[in-house]
Amino acid sequence: MPGVVDEAEARRISKAIDQELQRERDLIKRRQGQRKDVKVMLLGQAESGKSTLQKQFQLYYASSTIDRERPSWRPIVYFNVIKAVRTVLEELDYDFNNDLPPTDDDESDFLDPEWPYEIATLATKLLPLTSLEDSLASELSGGVTVSGGRTGVYVRAGWQALVTPTRSWPLSDIRNSISSTRTSTVANLAARQLAETQYEIAELWQHPATKALLRTRKLRLEESAALCTLGVTEHIFEIDFGTAHYNWLLYDVGGARHAWVPYFDDGITPPIADNDAVFVHFRVVVSRAYPWSQYLEEDPRTNRIDDSLQLFTAICTNKLLKNSTLVLMLNKTDILRKKLQAGVEVKKYITSYGERPNRYEDVSEYFRAHFAQVHKRKGQSKQQLYTHFTSMLDIRATQKIIVDVNEAIIRSYLGNSGLA
Ligand SMILES: Nc1nc2c(ncn2[C@@H]2O[C@H](COP(=O)(O)OP(=O)(O)OP(=O)(O)O)[C@@H](O)[C@H]2O)c(=O)[nH]1
Ligand SMILES: [Mg+2]
Residues with beta carbon < 5 A to ion ligand 2? Predict the structure, then answer.
């Protein structure tokens, strides 16, 4: 009869659908079951390159996700340019007001009496741009105020959603109070101001006073560009080594180290299990403490190696990390090389460096030996240590290290868990 449901047929179809669904569920379960979780934490000094390494991971293992994120980085680039412009103007103003000679080089630069006037004129023209720095920073930070004033932008988990309102980003701690419309308004304003002041920015950059400033301080602007991670962000990659499949859970921990050293008790830092790996990042740059303006009198006590070794000791002795693989990344070697080439003398900052040659090979060996000694003395018996000197700007070299290190982590993982 037409219109009458053949009950037997309906039951058969329904059963077939159920079976199909069950098959899919089983398949997913089996796949998940085959993938073992490996947790990898990125710890270390603030500004040492942890998030940059995370990006390199992403680029290597999941490059399509990078493309999706690309537009969200635009405001960060704006911010860094604006901050650099403001920093140069502020430093020049400080020098002019304190009647400092622009150079201590052999080169016979002299303070041109026109310079303060020229720079002040540029500063006025650039004011609509530089005045956007704080609001842009605040928007990018999701309203988090940065302690100690303008140190940089904090990247919270989910910040991309703040600057790209049309896309939802899969993280929950985004401050809903921030209006995304206003965010994009500030970013758009910054884009427009950058376009309008491009010639003034170029003029400032090429001005002999700026050149003298950068040369005298033997410093590089990118060292002052700060973009700190706040809290912990989690990134998951599926990594296959031969027939073994892993979920690689990468945790990028913000530089606020007292949050995780020594107890990991902040409730947000992921628990570390045996065999998990920890990348420990340091910058091997020798320099005086921030901010630039305080560089004028040299203070050998503020070098960062003591600080770094203390931090490394805390990690080596941490009970929770007793069975972890430690990967020590001594990063920013490109800056170290440039500084040495520019004639910066290590012994001025690290008294115990003594009369060793001021060459990259000797300096890096000096650092390596100090860290190795800490690990030898304080490291726990099952804690493996791999040490790498890195420049994260060298993508190919960094990715080779990532692959090598990951294989080593997997080997120790298999070894320790008796699965080899
Ligand atoms: N020249 C140079 N710059 C680097 C290198 N690695 C990272 N950077 C830059 O240094 C800055 C800080 O790097 P991040 O990766 O944000 O540092 P972080 O360790 O995540 O910092 P926090 O989130 O504050 O803990 C960024 O501007 C990077 O582009 C490197 O090897 N060489
Ligand atoms: Mg970071």
Answer: 50-51, 229
